[in-house]
Write a structure and sequence with these properties.
This protein is mainly alpha-helical. The protein has one domain (3-180): Orthogonal Bundle (Hypothetical protein af1432). The protein has 10 helices and no strands. The protein has helices spanning 3-19, 33-47, 55-64, 67-70, 75-82, 84-92, 104-113, 117-130, 140-156, 162-180. Helix 2 (33-47) packs antiparallel against helix 3, helix 2 (33-47) crosses helix 8 and helix 3 packs across helix 8. The protein is globular. The model has no long low-confidence stretch (mean pLDDT 95). Bound molecules: nickel (II) ion (NI). Nickel (II) ion is lined by residues 35, 65-66, 126.
Amino acid sequence: MDIQSTYQQAIKFAAAKHTEKNQLIPGSNLPYVVHLSNVAMEIFIAYQNLPDFKLDFAVTLALLHDTLEDTSTTFSDLSKEFGIDVARGVSALTKNKDLPKQIRMADSLNRIMVLPKEVGAVKLADRITNLQKPPDTWDTPKKEKYRIEAIQILQALKGSNSYLEKRLSEKITEYEKYIKEK
Ligand code: NI
């Protein structure tokens, strides 16, 4: 299948799932699919700077990365529709809600690190996308925590995707201005 068809199949699947509960981007009235397409966009741009990178795999993961965490989608749905590698990748990108909150990110990062580098690329792209202006409802400690978590992601995935690491590092620095604002 060509990449355009892969993209269409994945974005339609994800959009339908995230729309079931009318999921929006937090702090906005935008449908969640805007976040997903932004993560995919980061991957497309990064691809031009990444050697030996499986673009179709990474873009599919980008579009589906929140389906297990936020929607009724199951591992077996993903496996049937997109194959076991995609299901495993999305699963690693999903926080385990049975664990205490403060170790969920580290646990997810540990599972990401043992998978192909495209999975880590999506994690980096996801946080790059999310380091835009935070919702007005977020207080300073929450923003600070989000910034520290971004540093944790960057450190865990060090050496995997230099282009995306550099971009995330710049976004972390930029984000400081939103913390100082209030
Ligand atoms: Ni996301």
